[in-house]
Specification:
alpha+beta, OB fold (Dihydrolipoamide Acetyltransferase, E2P), five-stranded mixed sheet, 24 strands, binds nicotinamide-adenine-dinucleotide, binds zinc ion, ligase, DNA_ligase_CS
Length: 719
C-alpha cells in the first residue's frame, strides 16, 4: 500500500490525525509480520515510505504525535513462545539517511550538537549494514550465559540454545576478558546457503523461503535448536551492551577487540573523517555489494569516539551518534514477454509479468507481480497515480524492474521510447482463466468504489481456488504436512482415481484408508512416490489428527484471517465448538456474539464480517464437519493462572502507559489469564488508565467499571 500523496502542508489537523492513526496501525501490522513472524507483506521500500510519511506529518503537526507512534517504537514485541529476557541496555534501531544530503545533515548535526569542534576533526566509522537480525550475547566470567533477540528493544526472546549452535560464536572467551561482556551483532544467512536451502525445500516438495534475512530470523527463532543447527547461520560482531570494563575507547577499537576475542567482524569497516570520504566508501561498498555472499542494505556511520557517543546520547528509538545510509532499491531494464493470470485461494485473479530473465542485484528475476488491473494501468491502492498517464504496462514493453533487497520484484515504470508500435493495451480477463466463471470486481460497501481485486465467482467449483485452498491448508503455519507440497497437492487434486483423489481437506485424512481398501492403485507404485515416502506421508498425516486450535482456524483459509488473527480467535473462544457456535450466533451482525467478536482487540470489522460470512456458507460448514470427523483441534491453552485476581477478567488499557509498553501490558495481562479488549463495554471488568485517557475512561465511569492507574494495576496483579 503506497503512502498517501497529499502534500503534508495542505493537510487539515483532522486529516493529519486520521492519517497518523492509520499509519500507526499499518506500520505496527507490518512490524508484527516482519519482526514477529519473519514474513513481510510489503517491500522494505514501501515500508520505509510509510515511515517517512509518518515522520513528515509528525514534523508538521508535533501536537498530534501519538503515544503509540511508530517514531518511538523499535521492532515488535517478543513472541510468547520464548522466555523473555530484559536487556541490560536497550537495543535500539537506527535513524536512516537516503541521500548524500541526509548524510551531510547527519554529520552537521553531530558537529552542531557537540559544538566548537573544527571541521573534519570528528572520526566516523563506516561499516556495512548487514541484513540479518540483531542479537545480544552475554558472557559472565568468559562463559556464554544467554543470548536474546532485540524484540521491542527492551525485552527480547531467549534464544540461548539456538545461538550455541552457531559455530562462529565462541562459547568461551579468552582469559582476561571483563567479568560481564555483552557482545552484539548480526546473525545472518549467506546468499549461497539460502539458495542451497531453497533447493532442498523444493526437492522435498516444501514451500521455499522468501529471502535470506527472514530465513535467518526464522531459523533462529525455532523451538528445536537442531533446526537452527542445520541452517549454518553466521555472525558479525559490531556493538555491545553491558560491559563491566571497557576494553577500548572507540568504536573501531571495540570491534578490533571483539576480533581478538574470536568473533567474526566485517572486513569492510573503515574509520573516516570528511563527508566526501564517507560517501566515497559508501559508493565503494555499493559496487562490491553484488559480489558479497551476504545481503547488506546500507552502510552504518557511527561517531568513533565513545566519549563523544556518550555526550550525543539517544533519541527514543535510535542513537544520535549513528545513522544508516540505505542503498537505493536495485533496478534493471527488461521486457514483458507475456502477462499470465494466477488464481488464488480466495479467487483473486493476480496478473504476473513474465520477463526476459535479468539479474537485479545478483538475483535472476523472471517474474514480477502486477497486483491487479489498476496496477497495470498505473493506479495504486488508494486510487492515486503511481505511474504517469499512458504508462500502462503492455506485452512487449521495456520496463524498469526493482528488487528492494527483498520480497517480490516490482515493475516500476515503462520506458515509453521503446514501446513497440503494435503494443496494445492489456485487456484484463472478464472470466476466470481456470474455470471459466465470471470474474468480477466487487464494490466497496462504504466508499462505493470498485475493489482493486478481480475475483473468480466460481468458488468451490473453481479448481484453482480449490487447489490453492489445499496448499494453504497443508502449508507450514497451518497443518504443516511434510511430504505434501505444492506438486503433490496438484497431483492428488488432478487424478481421476477415487482411491487417490484429494479435492477438499478432509480427503487428505481418508487417503490412507482408501489406499488400504483399494486393490488396484497403490500410491507407492506411482512415479515420484516410493514405499518409504508413502509411509512417511501417511505418518505425517496421522501426526496432524490432533492440532492446535489456532493452526486449525488459520488452515480454514478464511479471508483476512492470518496467523495472528487465528491466534486471537483461538485464545478468545478456547475451543472449536465454542468458536463455531459464536460465529453462527453472530451471523445477523447484531447481538452479543457479534459485539463480543468485534470487541477482541486486534480484530476489526472487515475481519469480523469475513469470518461470519465464511460460516454462513453451508458448503464451508459441510467440509469442516467432515474434517472434524478426522481431526481434533485442541482446546487453546488456557494460560489462566487461576490464582490471579485477573484470570478470566476483561481489561482495557487506555491513555499512555509509562511503566511498560502497550504490548507488554497486554502480554502480561494475558499471561495471567485476562482478556484484553480494545473498547469499554458492559463486559469490561477493569480499565487501566494512564495520562491522557479520553473517551474510554469516560465510558468506564459512565458504566461504573472499576478504573485503576498503572501503579494500582501493578499492585493488583502482584496479588
Ligand atoms: N517490509 C516490511 O514489512 C518491514 C516491516 C518492518 C521493518 N522493515 C524493514 O526493517 C528495517 C527497519 O527495521 P529496524 O528497526 O531493525 O531498523 P534498521 O534495520 O533500519 O536498523 C537497525 C538495525 O540494523 C542492524 N545492523 C546491521 N548492521 C549493523 C551495523 N554494522 N551496526 C549497527 N547496526 C547494524 C541492527 O540489527 C539494528 O538493529 C527497514 O529496512 C525496514 O524496511 C520492513
Ligand atoms: Zn475460477
Amino acid at each position: 500500500m503506497a503512502a498517501d500523496k497529499t502534500p503534508v502542508d495542505t493537510l487539515t489537523e483532522e486529516q493529519a490525525a486520521a492519517e497518523l492513526a492509520f499509519l500507526a496501525a499499518e506500520i505496527a501490522r507490518n512490524d508484527e509480520a516482519y519482526h514477529g513472524h519473519d514474513a513481510p507483506n510489503i517491500s522494505d521500500a514501501d515500508y520505509d515510505a510509510l515511515k517517512r510519511r509518518n515522520d513528515a506529518i509528525e514534523k508538521q503537526f508535533p501536537q498530534l504525535v501519538r503515544a503509540d507512534s511508530p517514531s518511538v517504537k523499535v521492532g515488535a514485541a517478543p513472541l510468547a513462545t520464548f522466555a523473555p529476557i530484559t536487556h541490560a541496555r536497550p537495543m535500539l534501531s537506527l535513524d536512516n539517511a537516503f541521500s548524500d544530503e541526509d548524510v551531510a545533515d547527519f554529520v552537521g548535526s553531530v558537529y552542531r550538537f557537540l559544538g566548537q569542534l573544527p571541521d573534519n576533526s570528528i572520526a566516523f566509522t563506516a561499516e556495512p549494514k548487514i541484513d540479518g537480525l540483531s542479537m545480544s550475547i552475554r558472557y559472565e566470567q568468559g562463559r556464554l550465559v544467554n543470548a536474546a533477540t532485540r524484540g521491542d528493544g527492551t525485552t527480547g526472546e531467549n534464544v540461548t540454545e539456538n545461538i550455541r549452535t552457531i559455530k562462529e560464536i565462541p562459547n568461551q572467551l579468552p582469559a582476561g576478558v571483563p567479568d560481564v561482556v555483552e557482545v552484539r551483532g548480526e546473525v545472518y544467512m549467506t546468499k549461497s546457503e539460502f539458495l542451497a536451502l531453497n533447493a532442498r525445500m523444493e526437492a522435498e516438495g516444501k514451500q521455499t523461503y522468501v529471502n535470506p534475512r527472514n530465513t535467518a530470523a526464522g531459523s533462529l527463532r525455532q523451538l528445536d535448536a537442531k533446526v537452527t543447527a542445520s541452517r549454518n547461520l553466521r555472525f558479525f560482531a559490531y556493538a555491545w551492551g553491558e560491559m563491566s570494563d571497557m576494553p577500548a575507547d572507540t568504536q573501531l577499537g571495540m570491534v578490533q577487540t571483539f576480533e581478538k576475542w574470536g568473533f567474526p567482524v566485517n572486513p569492510l569497516m573503515r574509520r573516516l573523517f570528511a563527508v566526501e570520504d564517507i560517501i566515497g566508501h559508501y559508493r565503494q561498498i555499493g559496487l562490491e555489494r553484488p559480489d558479497l555472499d551476504y545481503e547488506i542494505d546500507g552502510v552504518v556511520y557511527k561517531v568513533d569516539r565513545l566519549d563523544l557517543q556518550a555526550r550525543l546520547g539517544f533519541r527514543s528509538r535510535s542513537p544520535r551518534w549513528a545513522t544508516a545510509h540505505k542503498f537505493p532499491a536495485e533496478q534493471a531494464f527488461t521486457h514483458v514477454e507475456k502477462i499470465d493470470i494466477q488464481v488464488g485461494r480466495t479467487g483473486a485473479l493476480t496478473p504476473v509479468a513474465r520477463l526476459t530473465p535479468v539479474t537485479v542485484g545478483g538475483v535472476v528475476v523472471t517474474n514480477a507481480t502486477l497486483h491487479n488491473a489498476d496496477y497495470i494501468e498505473g493506479i495504486g491502492n488508494s486510487g492515486e497515480r503511481i505511474r504517469e498517464e499512458g504508462h500502462d504496462i503492455r506485452i512487449g514493453d521495456t520496463v524498469i524492474v526493482q528488487r528492494a533487497g527483498d520480497v517480490i520484484p516490482q515493475v516500476l515504470d515503462v520506458v515509453m521510447e521503446k514501446r513497440p508500435a503494435d503494443a496494445v493495451r492489456y485487456e484484463f480477463p472478464k472470466v476466470c482463466p481456470v474455470c471459466g466463471s465470471h470474474a468480477v470486481r466487487e464494490k466497496n460497501e462504504k466508499t462505493g468504489k470498485l475493489d482493486s481485486v478481480t475475483r473468480c465467482t466460481g468458488g468451490f467449483t473453481c479448481s484453482a481456488q480449490a487447489t490453492e485452498h489445499l496448499k494453504h491448508f497443508v502449508s507450514r503455519n497451518a497443518f504443516d504436512i511434510e511430504g505434501l507440497g505444492s506438486k503433490q497437492v496438484d497431483f492428488f487434486f488432478e487424478t481421476e482415481d477415487p482411491a487417490l483423489q484429494v479435492r477438499t481437506a478432509p480427503d487428505i485424512f481418508t487417503l490412507k484408508k482408501r489406499q488400504e481398501a483399494s486393490p488396484l492403485t497403490k500410491l507407492e507404485n506411482i512415479e515420484g512416490f516410493g514405499k518409504v515416502s508413502v509411509k512417511k506421508l501417511f505418518e505425517a498425516i496421522d501426526e496432524r489428527r490432533s492440532i492446535a486450535l489456532n493452526r486449525f482456524i488459520y488452515a480454514l483459509g478464511i479471508r483476512h484471517v492470518g496467523e495472528t488473527t487465528a491466534k486471537l480467535l483461538a485464545r478468545h473462544y478456547g475451543t472449536y465448538p465454542a468458536f463455531e457456535q459464536a460465529m453462527k450466533e453472530a451471523a445477523s451482525l447484531t447481538g452479543d456474539a457479534w459485539a463480543d467478536l468485534n470487541n477482541i482487540e486486534g480484530i476489526g470489522e472487515i475481519v469480523a464480517r469475513a469470518i461470519v460470512e465464511f460460516f454462513k456458507e453451508p458448503r464451508n460448514v459441510e467440509v469442516i464437519d467432515k474434517l472434524l470427523a478426522e481431526v481434533t483441534p485442541q482446546a487453546a491453552e488456557q494460560v489462566a493462572a487461576s490464582n490471579s485476581p485477573v484470570a478470566g477478567k476483561t481489561v482495557v488499557f487506555t491513555g499512555s502507559l509509562e511503566k511498560f509498553t502497550r504490548d507488554e501490558a497486554k502480554a502480561r495481562a494475558e499471561s495471567l489469564g485476562a482478556k484484553v479488549a480494545g473498547s469499554v463495554s458492559k463486559k469490561t471488568d477493569y480499565v487501566v488508565a494512564g495520562p491522557g485517557a479520553g473517551s474510554k475512561l469516560d465510558k468506564a465511569r459512565e458504566l461504573g467499571v472499576e478504573v485503576m492507574d498503572e501503579d494500582e494495576w501493578l499492585a493488583f496483579i502482584a496479588g
